[in-house]
Amino acid sequence: MQVTPTLAATPAPPVMEARRWIEGVAFPADRPLLNLSQAAPADPPPEPLRRAIAEIALTDAEAHLYGPVLGLPELRARVAADWSRAYSGDVAPAQVAITSGCNQAFTAAIATLAGPGDNVILPAPWYFNHRMWLQMSGVAPRVLEAGADLLPDAEAAAALIDDRTRAIVLVSPNNPGGVEYPAATLAAFRDLARSRGIALIVDETYRDFDARDGAPHDLFADPDWDDTLIQLYSFSKAYRLTGHRVGAICASPARLAEVEKWLDTVTICPNSIGQRAALWGMENLSDWLAGERREILARRAAMIDGFTALPDWTLLGCGAYFAYVRHPFDAPSDDVARDLVRRASLLVLPGTMFGPLRAEGGTGRAEATLRIAFANADLAGITTLFDRLAEVSRGAP
After folding, report:
1. Is residue 103 in some structural domain?
2. 21 φ, ψ to 5°?
3. Which strand (E) or helix (H) includes residue 97?
4. Beta strand 229-234 pairing with 247-250
5. Within this chain, do residues 159 and 233 fall inside the same structural domain, yes or no?
6. 373 contacts 346 by C-beta, under 8 angstroms
7. Which of 225, 256, 284 is the last residue of a domain?
């Protein structure tokens, strides 16, 4: 079988790999599987949105047809208006495109920026799908190790830039680390990218669950923001529309004209029903979404409290959907994660899926860490998580 070398060298999708660890495993009735591996809502959209989706499917004939490649004009306008208000900036509908999920927004952005032989600066720990796309596209991920606080440093990034560097990628709130990047950090990276003539891609998939009140940064307040900034967003997390695949990209109209070429050859247009559902959510579910944020923040607090009671475990970052922790075992994290399936009926992802291994020049953090996606565990489930981790730490079977 012939396979392109870059694709063949790309690791298997981590979530799918982790699911294979539980295939054929019989979990005890008194210790069912607690799956904390995937960063996605486990529940369907709220009932009012499901009813709206049904009504759209039944009555809106246009929802079943091809639509504009860059997305529903009404949704683009709503995103522009909401972003302008939320960030105290100026975002126009022509600077917004809708994509088939946020992953596609990232791939479209990279398609306009980089090709084989180019490189993109990627902080570690990284979001694995970002690294996968760079690798299979022949674009070298230039790894920027984040500090002990999981924050990347712009001065360190500057040393990595050469004449083939095309962009810097940041994710805030961070996946997998959970940390929320300070506005000053994002501004420093913007200034660096602008001074070197490269793009700054900021993935804000989890912006709706940021613990800070108000705008998390002022990048959109810069009247020339679109000469450097490319912002990515996902409707999946806010409105539980994961299966409908709706994301967004904010960039200059000139860049979006190039994005349009790429999208037209891939999906032609975003999911029409999903776009209308996202728009309905933006128009009608602000109070509901505020409640979802409060619930996620309560779970975050429970995670922080839980690790305080487990001194052998070190919480490195916690926010949005994620806790990123240093485990206490004398074994690499991929072995630890597999062992937790057997010993504790817990499915989490190892740090080896999010950063370079020691053999690849890494610092060893990848082998020492685990990502726990707690958004799918209610407070009772989080209590169960810590009961099981405590048992494993004590050496209980």
Report:
1. yes
2. -70, -25
3. strand 96-99
4. antiparallel
5. yes
6. no
7. 284
Helices 47-59 and 272-284, interaxial angle, to 10°? 130
The total number of structural domains in the chain stands at 2
Please check whether residues 137 and 245 belong to one and the same domain. Answer: yes
Decide if 235 is inside a domain.
Answer: yes
Are 328 and 375 in contact by the 8 Å Cβ rule? The answer is: no
pTM for the whole structure: 0.95
Report pLDDT for 396: 52
Q: Which residue stretches of the chain have pLDDT < 70? A: 396-397
Residue 56 placed within a domain: no
Residue pLDDT, tens place only, 164-202: 999 999 999 999 999 999 999 999 999 999 999 999 999
What six digits make up the tokens of 253? 């109209």
Cβ of 92: how many Cβ atoms within 10 Å? 15
Q: Please, is 173 exposed, middle or buried when counting C-beta atoms within 10 Å of its C-beta (0-12, 13-18, 19+)?
A: buried
CA distance 131 to 137: 10
Q: What is the Cα–Cα distance from 138 to 311, expressed in whole angstroms?
A: 43
- The structure tokens listed for 338 are 């597999």
DSSP H or E stretch at residue 385: helix 379-393
**Residues 270 and 189 both lie in one domain:** yes
What token pair was written down for 75? 């949704």
Q: What is the DSSP letter of 358?
A: G
Q: Are 239 and 45 in contact (CB under 8 A)?
A: yes
Burial 312-336 (b: 16+ CB within 10 A, else e): ebebbbbbbbbbbbebeeeebbbeb
Say whether both 319 and 279 belong to one domain: no
Structural domain harbouring 377: 5-44+288-392
Do 106 and 153 lie in one domain? The reply is: yes
Q: Cα–Cα distance between 288 and 291 in angstroms, integer?
A: 5
In a domain, 58, yes or no: no
Amino acid (one-letter) located at 357: L
Which residue in 346, 15, 9, 338 sits closest to 176, CA to CA? 15
The CATH number given to whatever domain includes residue 294 is 3.90.1150.10
